Amino acid sequence: MNEWMKTGGVLLAGAILATITGLTGPKAIKGEAFAEQGKPFFPAFTDPEAAQSLQVVEWDATAAQPFTFKVEFRDGRWVIPSHHNYPADAKDRLAKTATSVIGMLKDSIRTERKEDYPACGVVDPEDSSGADPKARGRRLTLRDGAGNVLADLIIGRKMPGEKNRWFVRVPDQRRVYSVALDLDLSTRFTDWIETDLTRIKADSVWRLVVKDYEVVAEGGVARLNPRPPVSVEKPRDTWTMQGLDPAAEEVNAATVGTMTQTVEGLKIVGIRKKPEGLSRDLKRRDGFKVDDRSFSDLIARGYFYDDRSGTLYSKQGELEVHCEDGVVATLRFGDIFTGSGLGLSSGADEPEEKKDDRKPAAKEARYLMITAHFDEKALRPEAMDENMPKPGYRVDTRPLTRWQREQLDDQRAKDHAKAMEAFKGRMMEAGKKFNARKEAGIKRAKQLQDRFADWYYVIDAESFAKVHVDRKALVKGKGEEFGPEGPPPGPDDGHDHGPDDPH
Questions:
Q1: Checking CA distances to 21, which of 31, 74, 258, 404 falls within 20 to 30 Å?
Q2: Quick check: helix, strand or coil at residue 71?
Q3: Secondary structure letter of residue 192 according to DSSP
């Protein structure tokens, strides 16, 4: 249950509390109202899969205006229109909502008086009468693929003393009902998108390459401050790094673990659409070119393209993630961004007349670009049996006849041939596994690049700190529990940092 549902049933003080209490008792049902009792709210709506769009409108108290969130099925996929048609993970969630709405019955009439709407919280959020924000409910509208309304209702306050009963009203109708409901009407962008962004499992990562350079833009000129890249890898069971003093230093496995787990569970707080030309070129297998529009867009996000070398630089460096199937995902860290609400999650501009001190506190975030490609050199070496069997020999001081010696030599030759056959079989099997991983990696790299090509992502400052590290954080003294910078932050603090919730 979302936060709005949790807090919606808080008892109001004074007159409103008295009004709600008065509305919870039994009511006399007469005439037409009696005939409607127990019937579904939307009798023509019987198939959950008919719902092809969901819209929730609520009152945004900080912006002092209605806030609309929508997901819809378009061109064969679920998208979020307010966020540049970013793909939504909405099928199951919307089906559950539709099923709950289909099952709604007109159980109990509570009032027909408009004067009672504020106490019930069923004032339309789009009402222009200047009603108290606390009196406004959430308006849920479900439509089919042709745009026809399947269900439309305003969900108000939770009934006092009831576990899952709410005041509801159909827009343009007077009656307020109490209804059993189990809905999660989240309007948070982060609640509607696929959580597995990178599709990279931490245990599949065997090499990390940290390119901790920096690009400084001054007076229209970008200057590169290079630093040597740092690479850690795990060809077998232990993370290693070239250039370590084996007597005094070792890889800080805790830091590396935090990095790989953060990559696996990377959470975004916003997205931006890339220019069409840049998106198209990023999907090409032979690199990309940057036109003037893309060039300006890249600079605005903290990325700099050198057309002489065809190299893309990021303001705060890069992290290459090498997977055992040869997929190399490059996380490119761009400019810092400070914002809140839709400005953070979608880049929407806040209307000038609404800019005031009531807006939510701005949060610090950073642009992230992800690219992926296949590199055969990034394939993790298959565990091979490198000890080829050698012909057996035996020192025997016993006197042997010529026949006995021939028998022993013949048995040793047979044993060696058998061992060689087994060795060749293991080598062939390892080769097959290697080639299978290679083919799978080529396919997966293309899928990931197509997935990432259209979007700039926005990540919060905490996630950035976990994956943007330098050599100092990757190395610790031999036998030390932590490195010089102390224990690394955990891969996930368990909180959803979606800042676009308007409440």
A1: 31
A2: strand
A3: S
At residue 273, what are phi and psi to the nearest 5 degrees? -80, 130
What pairing do the DSSP bridges indicate for beta strands 325-339 and 318-323? antiparallel
Phi, psi of 45 (to 5 degrees): -95, 105
Most confident of the following: 145-149, 290-294, 397-401, 489-493: 145-149
Q: What is the mean pLDDT of residues 329-337?
A: 95
| 312 Cβ contact list (under 8 Å, min separation 6) | 298, 303, 304, 305, 306, 332
Q: Does the global pTM surpass 0.85?
A: no
**What amino acid is encoded at 50 in this protein?**
A
3-state secondary structure 199-211: CCCHHHEEEEEEE
What is the end-to-end Cα distance of the chain in Å, rounded? 15
Place of tokens 């990432």: 452
Nearest one of 95, 53, 97, 50 to 73, comparing CA atoms: 53
Q: Which of 196, 214, 202, 184 is nearest to 268 (CA)?
A: 196
Backbone dihedral angles phi then psi of residue 261, each to the nearest 5 degrees: -70, -35
Q: Which residues pair with 305 in a beta bridge?
A: 312
Nearest one of 380, 384, 382, 261 to 325, comparing CA atoms: 380
Enumerate the domain spans of the chain.
3-191, 202-382+440-477
* Mean pLDDT on 327-354: 80
237: exposed, middle or buried (C-beta count within 10 Å: 0-12, 13-18, 19+)? exposed
Query: What's the CA gap between 125 and 140, in Å, rounded?
Result: 11
**pLDDT by residue (tens digit) across 359-407?**
555 678 999 999 999 999 999 877 666 666 677 655 566 677 888 778 8
Q: Classify the C-alpha dihedral 459-465-471-473 as positive or negative.
A: negative
Three-class secondary structure assignment of 373-431:
EEEEEEECCCCCCCCCCCCCCCCCCCCCCHHHHHHHHHHHHHHHHHHHHHHHHHHHHHH
Q: What Å distances lie between residue 50 and 30, 171, 217, CA to CA? A: 34, 21, 52
Half-sphere exposure of 480 (CA within 13 A, CB side): 20
The DSSP call for residue 349 is: P
CA dist list (Å): 14 to 11, 73, 247? 10, 45, 74
The helix/strand/coil state of 463 is helix
The pair of structure tokens assigned to 439 is 């083919």
Cβ proximity of 67 and 51 under 8 Å = no
- pLDDT band per the 50, 70, 90 thresholds, residue 8: very low
